[in-house]
Amino acid sequence: MTMAKQTTRKGKNRNRFEQVLNNCVHCMGIDLLSDVLVVGGSAEDGRTLQRIGFTRVTLSNLLDPRPSEQADLDDAGMCAVRMDAEAMELADNSYDLVLAHEVLHHCRSPHKALLEMLRVSRRHVILLEPNNSLAMQLLLRLRFSFPYELPAVVASGFQTGGVRDSSIPNYIYRWNAMDLYRTTASYLAESEFDLYTQGYWDFNVDAVELRRRSETRIGSVTKILSPPLFLAGLHCFQAVVNHIPLLGSQGNKFFGCIRKRSELKPWLIRRGDEVKFNGDYIIRQKGRRRSPVP
After folding, report:
1. Distance, CA of 238 to CA of 260 (rounded, Å)
2. Quick one: residue 6, left, alpha or beta (phi over 0 = left, psi -120 to 50 = alpha)?
3. d(CA 148, CA 177)
4. Fewest Cβ atoms nearer than 10 Å: which of 12, 67, 70, 75?
5. Cut 0.85: pTM above it
6. DSSP for 60-76?
7. Beta strands 79-82; 148-149: pairing state
8. From CA 225, how far away is CA 220, in angstroms rounded?
9. Cα–Cα nearest to 169, from 229, 120, 125, 213
10. Percent of the chain with pLDDT over 70
11. Biggest alpha carbon distance in the chain?
């Protein structure tokens, strides 16, 4: 969503995200020749896609890139355009794939941004966001996590990094498979779609960012255990639980992919350029209810 968010993400280990994204590409049959739009994208987002095999990548952002960021984009051979994730000035079905990597929770309306991604996408939409799992709800209650994202604003010197790149810390809207299904089903009321979702643990922070989380109980823990030792324990934990599906799905990250399909809902029919309710569907349903049980 914002260039400030890019800066805080730069240099972080993305191996786990890259692995999950690569698995999704194969499972969902995503063409590597797809035209890809990365919402709130950084050069590192583009490089991740390039390592997987995508070659036609466009990055969009709320602000124009700073000179150092533009140099990164030039080195990666990618272009960037200025665009608001919540109101993209693009025609419907402009890109094959639209992707947002930890962007939606920086929007004033995460759902509006997702609907814009669905509108602009011809085929696939991919997002990575915080996970609204039972484990994360418990961590929030125990104050090991915080509902608002203060560290990004602190890292920018209290100037940017919050809601729509402002100095106001954004609420961390967390997603799960049901949230994604309901939002997508509301928008794609006419057509069928497929979902690919995965929750997993990925503590992608460093010692400096860990120290900024003073509003949580993590600060008390790191006074006893040094930040590097605490991070080492977290990484060992995630390495184990991510191999256990039930525990891995409770992780702090939620990965989702939506595949748009051309088939209409069974109660609809296309007549010319219009989609209408198909009265024959009701007749068929009544016929099935009246059929004797064999």
Report:
1. 32
2. alpha
3. 22
4. 67
5. yes
6. EESSPPPHHHHHHHHHH
7. unpaired
8. 9
9. 213
10. 94
11. 73
